[in-house]
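Query structure, 400 C-alpha cells:
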C-alpha cells in the first residue's frame, strides 16, 4: 500500500491535518507532507477539496472456499504432566452448546502419550468423539509439532470451529495454525454464539482497552478459531454419552523437532487460586488505603474466601499482582463474588461477571457494578463490611 500527495494540486489548506487522527500529515512550505505516524487510514482523502491525496491499495482477493465442507466443533486438550488443563472442561461445555446448535459433532482432540487411562473420565464432559493422537514425542508441548500435527489433522478433517484455551500454550500454537491455514483467529473471547442464518461463529472480545466489546466473525474462511481465557465458561458434566474414540498412532521422529526440551524449570507456584475459588471477596479503590484493606481480608477470612481486587488496588500496592481480577488480571467465576468499593469498569467486569452471585457494596448508587450485581448494597463499606463480618461470625458460632 502506498500514499501520494500531488504537490501541484495541494493548496496547503490544512484540512487533511485537521482531520488526521494520528498526526500523520503536516504542512511544510505550504504543502502537505506525510509523517511517520501515517497509518494509511485514508481520513485525509475524503476531506481534501482538490483530490491531491491518493492511496494505492493492492487488491485483496478473498479466496473462495466451500464452507459446507467444514463441519464439527473441536476442542484442543492442552495438558501438562499428563493432566488436562481445567479450561478444556470449560470449553467442552461451551463447545457442546455450539455443536448442538449446529447439529454437528463435538470432538476433543488430544495430542499426547499415555492418555488411555483418562479417556473414560474425559468422556464424562460430553464430547461425541475423542481424537487421540498418540506419540511419545507429544508427551511434552512443542510449538512446532503441535502446529504441524494439528494443521495436518485440520486439513484432513475440516472442522468448522476450533476452541482452545487462551493460556500461554494456546496463545502459542493457535496463531501458528491460523497463519498456515489462512483461517480467522479471535483471541481472548468472552462470548461465543452461532449466527443461525450463516452458521458463522460470533466471537465477542473486549477491544480498545476494554472500553468496547467487539463481535468478530470470519465469514470467508474456515476453520473459525477462538481462544478463551480460563474461567469464562462453566464446566458442564454429562454422564449419559459414550464418546467414540479415534486413536491414531502418530509416527513422529526426533528429527521432526525443530526444538528440543532439555530441562523443564518449574516456576514457583503462587498460592493464590482465584480461578478455582468458590467465594471471592474483592476490594477496590473505595477501600481507601492498604491499611484499611485489612477489613476486606477479614471478610475473606470469615467466609473462607480468596482475596482479590481491582487493578487500581494492585497499582497502589495494596494487593499483590496475582490477585488482580479483570481483563489484564484473572478471569474468575466463583459461586459468590463480593465487590467492595469497586466501581465496575468494563475491564473489571469482563473478569468477574460470570460469577454465580454478585454482591456489590458501593456508596454511589449509580456505580456500574450494580448493573451486574444480584444484590446491591448502597452505603459506606466501612460500616457495612464490619457488620457483615459480625453477622457471619454469629451464624458460624450458632448464635444467630
Ligand atoms: C487496558 C486496560 C486494562 C485494564 N485492566 C483492568 C483489570 O484487569 N482489572 C481492573 O480491575 N481494572 C482494569 N483496568 C482499570 C479500569 O479501567 C478501572 O480503572 C479500575 O477497574 C477501577 O478500579 P476501582 O473500581 O477499584 O476504582 P474506581 O473506579 O476509582 O472506583 C472506586 C469505587 O469505590 C466507591 N467507593 C469509594 N469509597 C467508598 C466507600 N467508603 N464505600 C463504598 N464504596 C466506596 C466509589 O463510589 C467508586 O465506585 C484496566 C484499564 C485499561 C485501560
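Result returned for the query:
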Amino acid at each position: 500500500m502506498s500514499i501520494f500527495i500531488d504537490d501541484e494540486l495541494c493548496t496547503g489548506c490544512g484540512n487533511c491535518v485537521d482531520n488526521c487522527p494520528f498526526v500523520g500529515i503536516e504542512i511544510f512550505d505550504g504543502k502537505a507532507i506525510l509523517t511517520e505516524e501515517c497509518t494509511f487510514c485514508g481520513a485525509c482523502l475524503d476531506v481534501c477539496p482538490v483530490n491531491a491525496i491518493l492511496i494505492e491499495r493492492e487488491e485483496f482477493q478473498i479466496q473462495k472456499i466451500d464452507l459446507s465442507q467444514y463441519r464439527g466443533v473441536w476442542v484442543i486438550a492442552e495438558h501438562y504432566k499428563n493432566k488436562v488443563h481445567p479450561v478444556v472442561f470449560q470449553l467442552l461445555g461451551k463447545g457442546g452448546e455450539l455443536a448442538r446448535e449446529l447439529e454437528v459433532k463435538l470432538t476433543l482432540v488430544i495430542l499426547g502419550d499415555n492418555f488411555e487411562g483418562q479417556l473414560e473420565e474425559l468422556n464424562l464432559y460430553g464430547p461425541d468423539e475423542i481424537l487421540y493422537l498418540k506419540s511419545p514425542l507429544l508427551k511434552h508441548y512443542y510449538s512446532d509439532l503441535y502446529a504441524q500435527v494439528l494443521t495436518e489433522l485440520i486439513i484432513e478433517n475440516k472442522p468448522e470451529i476450533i476452541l482452545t484455551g487462551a493460556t500461554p500454550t494456546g496463545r502459542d500454537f493457535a496463531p501458528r495454525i491460523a497463519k498456515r491455514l489462512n483461517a480467522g483467529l479471535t483471541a481472548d473471547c468472552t462470548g461465543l454464539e452461532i449466527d443461525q442464518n450463516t452458521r458463522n461463529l460470533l466471537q465477542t472480545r473486549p477491544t480498545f482497552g476494554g472500553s468496547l466489546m467487539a463481535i468478530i466473525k470470519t465469514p470467508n474462511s474456515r476453520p473459525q478459531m477462538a481462544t478463551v481465557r480460563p474461567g469464562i465458561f462453566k464446566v458442564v458434566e454429562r454422564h449419559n454419552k459414550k464418546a467414540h474414540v479415534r486413536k491414531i498412532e502418530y509416527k513422529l521422529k526426533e528429527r521432526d523437532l525443530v526444538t528440543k526440551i532439555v530441562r523443564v524449570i518449574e516456576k514457583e507456584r503462587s498460592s493464590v487460586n482465584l480461578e478455582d475459588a468458590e467465594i471471592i471477596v474483592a476490594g477496590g479503590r473505595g477501600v481507601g488505603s492498604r491499611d484499611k484493606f485489612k477489613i476486606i481480608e477479614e471478610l475473606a477470612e470469615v467466609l473462607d474466601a480468596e482475596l482479590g481486587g481491582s487493578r487500581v488496588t494492585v497499582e497502589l500496592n495494596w494487593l499483590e499482582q496475582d490477585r488482580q481480577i479483570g481483563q489484564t488480571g484473572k478471569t474468575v467465576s466463583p459461586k459468590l463474588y463480593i465487590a467492595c468499593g469497586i466501581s465496575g469498569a468494563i475491564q473489571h467486569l469482563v473478569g468477574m461477571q460470570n460469577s454465580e452471585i454478585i454482591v456489590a457494596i458501593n456508596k454511589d448508587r449509580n456505580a456500574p457494578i450494580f448493573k451486574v450485581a444480584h444484590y446491591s448494597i448502597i452505603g459506606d463499606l466501612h460500616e457495612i463490611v464490619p457488620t457483615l463480618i459480625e453477622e457471619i461470625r454469629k451464624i458460624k458460632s450458632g448464635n444467630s
